[in-house]
Amino acid sequence: MLYDFWKKISVIFLSIFFLSLVIVNSVQAQTSANYFDTKLHTTVTVNETGLSRIKHEFTITNKTPTTYVSQYGLKISSAELKNTTVVYNGQALEPEIVSAKIGQQSGPGQTSIGITFPDKVVGEGKTREFTISYTDPDAAVISGNVLEVSLPPQANPQDYSVYTITLITPDKFGGPIRTTPKNNSFTVQGNRVITTFNQGGERGTFALFGSIQFFNLDLSYHLNNPTNNPGITQIALPPDTTFQKMHYYQLEPRPKKIESDADGNWIATYQLPASTDTVVNLKATALLTLEPNSNIPILEPAQSLLQAQAYWPVNHPDIKNLAQKYTTAKDINDFVVDTLSYNTALAFNSPKRLGAIEALNNPDQAVCQEFTDLFVTLARATGIYSRRATGYAYSQNSELRPLSLVEDILHSWPEYFDPTQKRWIPIDPTWENTTGGVDYFHQVDLNHVVFAINGQDSQTPYPAGSYKEQDSPQKTVLVEFGTNFPEEKLSFKTSFIPQKILGVNLPGRYVLQISNNVGQAFYHLPLNITTNSSNLVIKNSPQEITALLPLQTLEIPLIFESNANWLPTHDTILLKIADENQEFNITTSPPLQFSFNLEQQYYYLAVAGGIVLIALITGSLLVLKRKR
């Protein structure tokens, strides 16, 4: 979900008066904690629509007999606050409120709340208590089945001796599933869930309610073959990942082939007639989960995921120097977040992709691509397998959670491989930067839908949203919240196709075709091919189908050899996939072809040569016969 909560770093301004000879400069050089004990309790009450009322309760106690607070200021980086009130000693004070937009590059603006107290609270141990309250449209976000509440960190947390937080949320979302920090507890009171944090987080406070999310996708891919010859093209369809499962309702027209590549992308191959335009339409539902799906196979990272690519100059001297200093994924993430500055103005003007070095040289010209490229480059240089994910990320507020890939439609973020968990971990340094420090490193959210993964190559495959007609205003990516995810049962069609050469069936050589009738992938399907004949040997038969992709026709080459006959024979085999059994009649091959341990390609050449030789001999006999 989007933490639509800009950098609301509370900056406190204290006007301190001195009743004795105290040098002002020496006081300003010290923290306010030297003169005051400040306690803060923040209560965030979220209503059924997601609107939040935030109440800050301050207790400031003088530590010296000669200083007191006459004014207080709170600065929040949002210009959207409503109904701001200040209460002191049971009386309402009129605050001075200044709200202003501060430029596209810096975000949505800020609000300064100033208070002038009507009295003097003087003396060591004397206490001043007051509250500042306001309505904030961005502190909480309800998206589909999920509620997220986020508070940014305080600017000077060391100034607070106590900083506690209470979240009051509707019970229909249940208790918190993920929180930062971890030291919290919750209770249910009536139709409300009360979550209490004993200490605000150093990088903000976050709570997520709800563990799954559904997105309905309507994606269009505009394909063009301008040549005078038929052509082949490939597109990347949204795949299953550790935290994402797909269901395809419609894929038209059907591709010639669907297969998985080395990065786990689902690649659909289309054959395009000459001089034609084709629009591929995919309607699907994505199920996002917080917990990893252990059923989905994890691709072990290859050494290529440490290598340099375009935009990822792993061997550049500047990158190598930084890689010696920042050696963990967390260190690299924090460096990227703190170094780059998101440029909102660029995001709306189809920005040129800079790559890691140009991002370092121009840190104020960054959009999501630069945050991602810099992380991937530094991670690879450090020896951490990393790659780029591109896709859709839900955002109610594009200034807080911006989308800057492909004309403000898509988003990109990095993933790194955690060898301890043995899985790919998605993170989002872009949004951690634009939200003012909300933790997108440890928290897997329910906003990011992966369309394509770039690991072997820094640019391809391209995600949905990249296949648009030039100058066309038509949207090619339509996304809305869903309500459910269909749990389909396995349904498939199987057949044994004889392999041919020059139009002639090869005895004992077959391709087992397994066609998935369902728009979901199935994993780790037991496969068992047997026979009742003791003379039949089945070669190349796998024991498991690792993955059967949606609407995929999987092809498995098999060899059936008879040990008893020197001529091809007919036999019956038994095929069992998962819990379904089928029988097929096949023609076996004699063992002669294997006695010389010929490689398959040489066997084909030998058979082809034999066929040609027979044809030549037959032709010669016919010619000779005619001459007689």
Q: Would you tell me the overall average pLDDT?
A: 85
Q: Kindly report the spatial arrangement of strands forming the biggest sheet.
A: 6-5-9-3-2-12-15-14
Q: Kindly report the CATH topology of the largest domain.
A: Immunoglobulin-like
Distance between the termini: 89 Å
User: Any guess at the CATH architecture of the largest domain?
Assistant: Sandwich
Q: What low-confidence regions span 5 or more consecutive residues with pLDDT below 50?
A: 1-13, 17-31, 592-599, 620-628
**Which percent band covers the strand fraction?**
35-45%
- Strand tally is 35
**Estimated structural class:** mainly beta
The largest sheet, given as strand count, sense and whether it forms a barrel, is: 8 strands, mixed
Radius of gyration: 33 Å
Helices, by number, come to: 8
Helix content: 10-25%
Please tell me the total number of domains.
5
Report the principal-axis shape. elongated
Task: Please write the CATH class name of the largest domain.
Answer: Mainly Beta
Tell me briefly what this model is.
By secondary structure, this protein is mainly beta.
Task: Describe it.
This protein folds into 5 domains: 200 residues, Immunoglobulin-like (Sandwich); 77 residues, no CATH class; 163 residues, Roll (C8orf32 fold), CATH 3.10.620.30; 104 residues, Sandwich (Immunoglobulin-like); 30 residues. The protein is elongated, with a radius of gyration of 33 Å. The protein has 8 helices and 35 strands. It is mainly beta. Helix 2 crosses helix 6 and helix 3 packs antiparallel against helix 6. A hairpin with a 2-residue loop joins strand 14 and strand 15.
